[in-house]
Design brief:
Layout: H1 5-14, E1 21-24, H2 31-42, E2 45-50, H3 67-78, E3 87-92, H4 98-110, E4 115-120, H5 123-128, E5 157-160
Parallel strand pairs: 1-4, 1-5, 2-3, 3-4
Length: 167
């Protein structure tokens, strides 16, 4: 599949003023596939982290949000060092770890050579509403994610991935 968003991702990768990229979109529209595929094709190494399926990842974001410490912790969890400029870091289902979303500001400011892409479904709902014991939002409502206190305004690039349409 060749998705239009791939061109946006290539431009993002080459941008010297690149910020962490947040891909938002409805569930099952291809966010995970596009991030993984982009990493496979365009980077020597891709570090994929899913906050929904691996709760241990959240521990890396507890305490201070020192980027060097976080990257070392994530490298230990994956069993391989994360190298700025070489490794694409993917945070999937980031809505399950609001501290990771907040940390994107520090990734942008303190480690700009690190390429970070993240994705989530219903980000505004998940971050603005209480979560069930399974980590799911309790209410369905539309919320502007950039208005939330956890959202790192001005230090994250937003892209919306829409489902594929067919005739």
């Amino acid at each position: 599949m060749k998705r239009q968003i791939l061109q946006n991702l290539l431009r993002w990768k080459e941008d010297p003023n690149r910020q962490p990229l947040l891909i938002r979109g409805v569930r099952q529209c291809g966010k995970t596939w596009i991030m993984k595929r982009f990493g496979e094709v365009n980077y020597p190494d891709t570090a994929y982290f899913n906050f929904e399926s691996d709760e241990r990842l959240r521990e890396s974001f507890e305490g201070d949000l020192d980027v060097s410490r976080i990257i070392k912790s994530l490298g230990v969890q994956r069993g391989k060092t994360i190298m700025p400029g070489t490794t694409l870091v993917i945070f999937d289902e980031i809505q399950f770890c609001p501290r990771a979303l907040t940390a994107l500001k520090y990734f942008c400011e303190d480690m700009p050579k690190l390429h970070v892409i993240c994705a989530g479904s219903l980000l505004g709902v998940a971050l603005a509403k209480p979560l069930s014991s399974q980590g799911r939002p309790l209410l369905n409502a539309s919320v502007d994610i950039s208005s939330l206190s956890a959202f790192p305004v001005g230090t994250v690039e937003l892209v919306t991935l829409r489902p594929m349409n067919f005739y």
